[in-house]
Amino acid sequence: MNAMNLQNKTVLIVGGAAGIGQATALLCAERGATVIVADFNETEGKATAQAANATFVRVDVTDEASVAAMCASIAQTHGKIDALVQTAGILKGAYVNLEDFEMATLRQVLDVNTVGSFLCAKHAKPLLQKGQKPAIILISSPAAYGVSSSYAYAISKGGVSALGTTMAGKLAPEGIRVNVLFPGGINTYMKRSVIEEDARRKGEDPQAAVDAAAQSGLGEPLGVARVLAFLVSDEADYVRGSVSTR
Length: 246
Ligand SMILES: NC(=O)c1ccc[n+]([C@@H]2O[C@H](COP(=O)([O-])OP(=O)(O)OC[C@H]3O[C@@H](n4cnc5c(N)ncnc54)[C@H](O)[C@@H]3O)[C@@H](O)[C@H]2O)c1
Description:
Layout: E1 10-14, H1 19-30, E2 34-39, H2 42-51, E3 55-58, H3 64-77, E4 83-86, H4 103-129, E5 135-139, H5 151-171, E6 177-182, H6 189-201, H7 206-215, H8 221-232, E7 241-244
Parallel strand pairs: 1-2, 1-4, 2-3, 4-5, 5-6, 6-7
Bound molecules: nicotinamide-adenine-dinucleotide.
Nicotinamide-adenine-dinucleotide (NAD) binds next to helix 1, helix 4 and helix 6.
């Protein structure tokens, strides 16, 4: 069987309602995976799940009880997962100066991006241990290396990278492969919001700025989804640590 075929894979995509997660849910389903879409946006999450012939589970990744309940529900319905793809994330505080940065914003972004990734990995681990060649894939960003409009986002993604590389070492002896993905600028709600924000503060037209960015190389979610679907597959067996995309 073609290893890129995901027919025997059960894949949990957290943050799967929109953007990169949504494209990944649809592509994994197209390649034969059993897909579970988890998100706190119920309307878009259910719509994506329906399009991917997937199960939808509502989750708020910042809330440990909610993440535990998501995994308990998947244990009941599916019994195991073979891959966790954690794409839930937010970007707040773009272009805010250090001296003006609100602690509430910092904590909110860390809670979703970093604590959320930790909680998903923590509670999904028992489900992964029942899977075949299990994999965890987290989404960091070049923001982790200092290319960011937001202090909070940069710090949060540094934490995601550290979590991923630490788990890669600690979980390898247990047979769980961990990868951290670093996408470039991708045309999603999150990225468009930042481009619009930048245009507004410069007194420019937000829509024109988004159009210009799309013209000059902003990537599409499907491009990243193809990489994520590969990382979910057994074909990625030898991939360790970090992977960058455009
Ligand atoms: N778009 C880019 O240019 C880009 C670049 C690098 C990294 N990333 C990362 O890729 C990932 C996906 O981002 P995207 O661009 O597709 O954004 P998006 O805004 O399109 O999608 C994010 C998803 O996360 C969900 N979410 C947010 N908070 C949640 C919570 N508390 N609990 C559960 N779900 C929650 C949202 O409902 C949404 O469906 C994020 O981690 C982001 O930081 C994006």
